[in-house]
Design brief:
Elements lengths: L8 E5 L7 H17 L2 E7 L18 H12 L3 E5 L3 H4 L3 H12 L2 E7 L12 H11 L2 E5 L3 E2 L2 E2 L2 H10 L2 H8 L3 E8 L4 H4 L5 E3 L11 E9 L2 E10 L11 E6 L10 E11 L7 H21 L2
Parallel strand pairs: 1-2, 1-4, 2-3, 4-5
Antiparallel strand pairs: 6-7, 8-9, 8-13, 9-12, 10-11, 10-13, 11-12
Amino acid sequence: MEQTNVAHRAIALGFFDGIHRGHGQLMERAILRAGELALRPAVFTFDRHPSDLYADTPVQLINSAQDRADLIHRLYGIREVIFSHFDEAMMCMPWETFLTEMLYGQYGARHLVCGEDFHFGYRGEGNPSKLAATCRTLGIGCDIIPLMEIDGIKVGSTYIRTLLAEGDMERATEFLGHPHCLSHTVEHGKRLGSSIGIPTVNLTVPPHVLTPAHGVYATRVQIGEASYMGVTNVGVRPTVDRSTHVTVETFILDFSSDLYGQTLRVDFYKRLRAERKFASLDELKTQIQRDMDSTRSFFQKHP
């Protein structure tokens, strides 16, 4: 039964991992319908991947929930992201209940947008045709968006994860529509960079979020409203550390303030080289200087 105390919404449905260009089509349509129908545009998603409840290993996500919300806000202007907790009750919910009681009743959906491969409800029994038919019964709107392809390849999170695992940031950017990003609070490291005159900031990768292929990347670092060039190393730092713990360390060019405890965002643009072990710290320092030059050159060509 309709609740009169909630805002009526045009809702884009999906998990939205990576916030790629296919997701963008859903959100753009939700914004369009919201404007036409005087509704509030929103995204409905889950706080964790549904397969985590039954898979042997958690899905390695492109983005944390925080980064998904930030990308939705920043790139598409949708201010409301509804994160629903995915648990056994949600997993076992019949698709009709999910649609009529949760989306229509609880969240005031008056227009829904999904992709043509969207499935929902218990065992994924809900599909776009059932959604469209039920929306007609409820008297609300529904758009089913065709899958997007680039070079004959489906724009999807699975393929983008493969690109990130290979370190192909330029191809990933083409499919995402934006650079791959990682944001987190800066933590204290071992200060080994400072010992060779190249201080770095250390970011911890959130649980179940994948790290790109080990290597050195040309990045941009967003600190508040300011953006700086960066050289980011993803890997185990074989020259200075015997640990297998993966770190994400960034040297920020033309910046010297203390950032410990602050939250920043690193955008990955290009993999410069693979991670390798150097014979000495001096050799490592020389290579980092070359990486800085390569980064400056890259951004001069790609402002």
